Amino acid sequence: MPEKIKLIALDLDGTLALKDHKISPATRNALTQLHNDGIEVVISTGRRFRTAQYVIDNLDFETYCICNGGALVKDPQKVTVLDSTFSKQEFTIITTLARKYDLAIAAQRDAHTIGGPDFIIDNAVEWHSGISSYYKNNLDYAHGADLLKLDEQNNYLALATFDKESKLEGFVSELEKDNRFNVTVVTQFGGDAHYCEVTQRHVDKWYGLRHVAEVFGLQVNNICAVGDELNDLSMVGAAGLGVAMGNAHDKLKSISDFICGSNEDDGLLELFDYIRAHNEGIT
Prior knowledge:
Layout: E1 7-10, H1 25-36, E2 40-44, H2 49-56, E3 64-67, E4 72-74, E5 80-83, H3 88-100, E6 106-108, H4 111-114, E7 119-122, H5 129-137, E8 142-145, E9 158-164, H6 165-176, E10 181-186, E11 193-200, H7 205-215, E12 223-227, H8 233-238, E13 241-244, H9 250-255, E14 258-259, H10 268-280
Parallel strand pairs: 1-2, 1-12, 2-3, 7-8, 12-13, 13-14
Antiparallel strand pairs: 3-4, 4-5, 6-7, 6-9, 9-11, 10-11
Helix pairs in contact: 1-10
């Protein structure tokens, strides 16, 4: 028997967020109405918490935020309610392997809770121009250091880098053979670069979303998850209603239950209308 949708989880980039961390007025207003109707709105993103908050600040209400690809969950009061960090051994394995392939890895942290930088980039490897620009653009929140010489190596949520696909292939291939890790590659990330993120094996967006759903006492069929990229596969594939944006990766579209319009064309409005009609049809 169909059940009402009581929670909607939204990816940011390519889904809810437009350029400059904005949300279109029409989508924002419709999302506020869904929230006022009693549907829990949750953000689920690969972004770190600080940059996710840039988008959340556009909303008319506070919400749970699943960030770092599911490794970190913040409640509406910005308190950490779930985190999943690497052990020192895991951290060393990934960093050493990245150096083998001459990749500068960025170690991401819950800086909002523990203080210090959002991420630390390994400077034992020469940085290409993209990494250098990324560091300079986040100068207030970033640090460069030899990752294997850090005093603390057990409070990192995700390890990430970006480079040409050919440069990442060996690194990704070796990590995928290790059942301790979950590796996600987003195929378009600024020009010809590919973004690669590594978390613990059990960590993905669905992992974080399941935790939030449990807080509200909700079941799988009460959940709608919306995304556009490969790092959304876990939650779109597992949710009761899995939704791909019109601009989504073909692989995500192939497993979705519903495809709405592009994020730049307020495509989410089609989904919101569908959810409202779906819920009204259930007594």
